[in-house]
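Ops channel
N.P.: pipeline sanity check, posting one input/output pair.
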């Protein structure tokens, strides 16, 4: 942090994860603080609010039961008892009755009245002489926070708490929170933790909200600056609080320069990502929300190389029905014609939680019940999703490919393919005509990369998930900002794995793409081209720059470059050489 002499400007640095500028007042959401919006309701809405309350209590109950079971299993019944006490507090008849009574009497939304009732309860407990009862204050607060968070987790409630244009500041934002941000109000956001490849950062890029994560400040410090005006630079990763006139002018000028580059890049929209010696790379876009489909054509991508279908599933109480899913997948396939959409089966788990849950009880969620593992353990969920995908393929006459995430061994692919074949047969027996479609798997676990030859016998393509491949190979939590300096896509170990996967795919006669954030790093892309990558898929905002970088190099020279760089032992040196090349070929992409 720097406190400059000119007018008390305060500068904070962090990781720039989503480009753009924002200028506005800070709105700080404290960690664990659940938003408590306050608004009046009409008599006809009382029933609706009471229903929301009932559902939030039910959801909290499920959470607490799950936590209690996990604690009992891992630590013993004694430690789990505390959650028994929380369950009793949750359904405490006095609190529930008082809340419903106040709802009728005050005609305010449920968060406001519940928070008020809890406040009174806490005051009474806190004033008691009995130290045991006084200590229960923390428990009441904890339970109430969960209920309020579950109320906020409902569609729209989190968004409703943001009523004015602001730069949102939080300790962390869950990907589902990010997906719900009202883009007309949130000018930009800043979090204290997170990294380039955390799903929150990925969502920020797809929503085109300028964002900085891992800011070098505590939330407490930033809370003291609530409502103070700031400038956020999502290119450099800087937040300037109380900006001087000259800082505002400089950021305005930088914004204009960037806008000019973006305008120049839009000229490339209808061109292909072809090297100077004629090798065409399929450059497609990643999609998280169905609403973002127009961005795919707009950015000049050739279809969707990764549809993260789990974002249709998260932040809701139930899995979407087959019909609902089929409709979404059909919309995606129709929108990208004549190109393809690659529908990825559910990648829930890790930092993407299951419908109806807001907590994970696994000790290592990223190493746990995630992605294809979850689907194979819940085959009914996978069957429904695959049927919906096959119906979309039937509807769109192809234009759909399917891929499985986080595969770690060939048996998983065989099992998933067997389920797919059964569902295809069932649909065809019912008269649905389904064209041939390509089925692929992601390579994002080192064991999959190292056995790519075997996996290649079961699929028609690979898509390298570099975000997870880096996380699992270097053993770094992809969302941990303190380790961000070690999270290096150009680590020689990562490049060797990628090279191995590309060679194995080509020897087996299948194509190979890469859909992690590495595909959006325009200085690294020429190396991937040299290594022989066939397809790249990245956020729509990155597509024009990546296209420009590919069009500036030849396949032959990049192959030679790859041969040289793959012999180096330092990721830093490899990156420095790639940056130098990009600066020479595409200077306008640097500011
Ligand atoms: C990846 O891991 O690179 C990937 C594309 O999948 P996700 O980021 O959704 O885990
Ligand atoms: Mg992944």
């Amino acid at each position: 942090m720097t406190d400059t002499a000119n007018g008390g400007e305060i500068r904070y640095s962090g990781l720039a994860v989503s480009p753009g500028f924002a200028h506005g007042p800070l709105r700080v959401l404290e960690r664990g603080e659940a938003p408590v919006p306050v608004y009046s309701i009409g008599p006809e809405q009382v029933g609706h609010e009471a229903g929301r309350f009932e559902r939030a209590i039910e959801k909290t109950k499920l959470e607490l039961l799950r936590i209690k079971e996990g604690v009992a299993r891992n630590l013993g019944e004694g430690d789990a008892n505390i959650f028994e006490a929380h369950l009793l507090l949750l359904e405490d008849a006095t609190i529930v009755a008082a809340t419903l009574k106040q709802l009728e009497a005050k005609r305010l939304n449920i968060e406001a009245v519940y928070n008020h009732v809890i406040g009174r309860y806490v005051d009474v407990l806190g004033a008691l002489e009995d130290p045991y009862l006084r200590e229960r204050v923390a428990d009441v607060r904890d339970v109430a926070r969960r209920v309020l968070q579950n109320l906020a987790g409902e569609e729209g409630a989190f968004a409703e708490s943001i009523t004015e244009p602001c730069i949102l500041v939080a300790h962390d934002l869950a990907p589902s929170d990010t997906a719900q941000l009202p883009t007309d109000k949130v000018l930009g956001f800043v979090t204290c933790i997170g990294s380039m490849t955390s799903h929150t950062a990925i969502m920020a890029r797809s929503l085109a909200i300028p964002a900085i994560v891992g800011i070098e400040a505590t939330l407490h410090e930033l809370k003291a600056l609530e409502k103070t005006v700031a400038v956020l630079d999502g290119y450099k990763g800087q937040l300037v609080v109380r900006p001087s006139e000259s800082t505002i002018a400089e950021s305005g000028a930088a914004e204009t320069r960037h806008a000019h580059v973006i305008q120049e890049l839009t000229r490339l929209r209808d061109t292909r990502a072809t090297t100077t010696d004629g090798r065409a790379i399929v450059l497609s876009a990643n999609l998280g929300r169905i609403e973002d489909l127009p961005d795919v054509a707009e950015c000049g991508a050739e279809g969707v190389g990764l549809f993260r279908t789990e974002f249709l599933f998260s932040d809701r109480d139930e899995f979407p029905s087959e019909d609902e899913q089929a409709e979404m997948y059909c919309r995606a396939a129709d929108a990208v014609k004549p190109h393809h959409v690659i529908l990825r089966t559910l990648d829930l788990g890790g930092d993407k939680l299951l419908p109806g849950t807001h907590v994970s009880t696994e000790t290592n969620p990223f190493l746990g019940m995630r992605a294809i593992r979850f689907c194979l353990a819940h085959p009914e969920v996978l069957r429904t999703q695959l049927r919906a995908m096959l119906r979309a393929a039937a509807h769109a006459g192809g234009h759909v490919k399917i891929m499985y995430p986080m595969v770690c061994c060939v048996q998983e692919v065989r099992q998933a393919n067997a389920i797919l074949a059964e569902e295809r047969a069932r649909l065809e027996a019912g008269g649905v005509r389904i064209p041939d479609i390509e089925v692929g798997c992601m390579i994002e676990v080192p064991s999959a990369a190292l056995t790519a030859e075997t996996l290649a016998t079961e699929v028609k393509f690979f898509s390298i998930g570099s975000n997870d491949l880096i996380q699992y190979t270097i053993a770094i939590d992809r969302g941990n900002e303190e380790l961000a300096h070690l999270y290096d896509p150009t680590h020689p170990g990562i490049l060797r794995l990628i090279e191995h996967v590309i060679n194995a795919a080509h020897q087996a006669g299948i194509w190979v793409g890469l859909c992690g954030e590495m595909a959006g790093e325009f200085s690294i892309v020429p190396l991937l081209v040299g290594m022989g990558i066939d397809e790249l898929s990245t956020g729509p905002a990155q597509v024009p720059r990546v296209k420009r970088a590919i069009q500036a190099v030849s396949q032959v020279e990049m192959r030679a470059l790859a041969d040289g760089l793959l012999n180096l032992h330092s990721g830093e040196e490899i990156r420095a050489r790639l940056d130098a090349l990009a600066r020479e070929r595409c200077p306008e992409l640097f500011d």
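N.P.: looks fine end to end. The longest strand covers residues 21-29.
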